[in-house]
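Assemble and predict.
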Amino acid sequence: MTLYTRGYRRHEDGFQARTLRFGPIFVQGYREAVRSKAFRRLMSLFTVILIVHCMMYYFNPDQFVRRLSGVARPGGASSAETLRASVASLLGALRWLSPLLVLFVGSGLVADDLRARALPLYLVRPITPADYWLGKWLIPAAVLGVAVLLPLLVLLVFGVMLEPSDQVVAFAGEQGRVALAILAAYAACAVAYGSLVVLLSTVAGRRTPALVLGAAAIYGAPVIVSLALGASVIGRHGHPAAATTGLLDLVKTIWLPMDVASIFHAVSGAPIEPDDVAAMPDPWSAFGMLVLLFLLAAFVVIRRARTVEVVA
Amino acid sequence: MNDDAPSIRLDRLSKWYGDVLAVNEVSAEFGPGVTGLLGPNGAGKSTLLKVVTGMLYPSLGGVTVCGERPFDAPHVMRRVGLVPEQDPIYSGASAFEVTAYLTRLHGFSAAEAAARAQTTLERVGLAAAMDRPVRGYSKGMRQRAKLAQALAHDPDVLILDEPLNGMDPVARRDVVQLIHDLGAEGRCVLVSSHVLHEVESMTKRVLLMDHGRVIADGTIAEIRRDLSDRPLTIRVETSAPRELAGRIVLLEGVERVDVGPGLVVVMTKRPNDVFAGLAAWAVDDHVPIGGYGPTDESLEAVFRYLTT
């Protein structure tokens, strides 16, 4: 028989004394993550996608705008528009593939510790369950920094550098909103995928089930959203795009890549791909969902870290 | 005892989980040196260690480690090292990596943690294997790796939960010697075990637990002396066992005498009378007595007495 009980730790140290305790957990975990084959292989794929986008932007930038708006602008789109559209296109690919990377490198983050019954080794040291949570959550967040934030910024800089030399500085200054949108999209990815993978790693307690559950959550959500949209169309006899409020909007938020896209488009002002219009949640709903997921994951991991196996 | 000295104090400590009473009003004090925490599975040893290491909050009573309550002041854990029963984490990593990593959690820089990890792994006898993945280690090597991660930050208080599990005799001897040395250095070392002879080889001071209660606290000899109403078994080597048995059986307090080839085993409530008689017969009557001594001052026997 195994009994579990809630451990107890109150913390009297000041904020300053606590802030860096998660550091070694994060550094070690990140090192392990980037050493993995999954990281190296998927990062190779991400690099290829980035190079393709850079080449497409270099040779035929208007195609991004055409794809997003569905029509070609008379006289072509402005450089700012094409760059924004190309960044949106790259994010469109990364927001689907990056969860896979996070799941591969992060499914064992907590599960491996649980399986090895290693939590006491952490908690008998001057770190807290909250330090443990933060250290673990930062690992996928940092991996996404390399996988999502870096390629988007590289494309943005590449687009700026292609401008005539006398206009580079002015053009770069105009890209503040896109840069902000990239940061927002990265933060959304980190919160969504990082929280999900750490949450599932804790709940599943094993690496493989966590990976399978995560893949189901990320890639199975579109099915549920599509069914909800279909039901809404049948119920309203109208266009699904009209059904953007209420319960349906909440259902849409479970599709995490679409939450990321919604936040990016809200900040950047980039046009939304026609196929995504119906399924994209309201940005505030998406934001709320990500905050909820973050808090839930933090609660579950901290609670589990405080749970001590007492009789086995 | 100075509050800042390496010490653990338990003051009427109780811990229960729902209806299960795991630790029942335990009061004890452990200072520098090695103390054995003994008891069968389910005696409450592990719960006690979890309270001492701040992982659990006591239901009643108090505990202080080096003068501070461990669950209120995580910084006191910098002075505590724990060897848990479980295997080290990151089994794909080397013992050096694991030790350095866990040492960093105490707040050491990467370079300092690495230096400490190397020194400690050498001390526990893993110098040659420290760069190999832990997953390829034998059980005994893993135990030593666990010991290293607990020692690398130079703790004042060391908690060892079943530290000799799975070790071969040579490794066992080395680790017992190491634990001796750690106690002799002035650290407060608390060793939990359900294997009595293991603890007996490390220390004479023990805390015996059963069903959450402390049933004895002191040296093994002290505990045995306190059990004066219990018979002591004495083994006597002699070439005239029948003659000697005939003399012994006449003494007061003797409950049983067994005769074997070259051997007499006596169970008595008055052992001093037997010892005096043996000395007198050997000197005055030239009874051939090779040697004698109590057989059940062993921890096993003491524990058996106390729990039955």
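Chain B has two domains: 8-221, 227-307.
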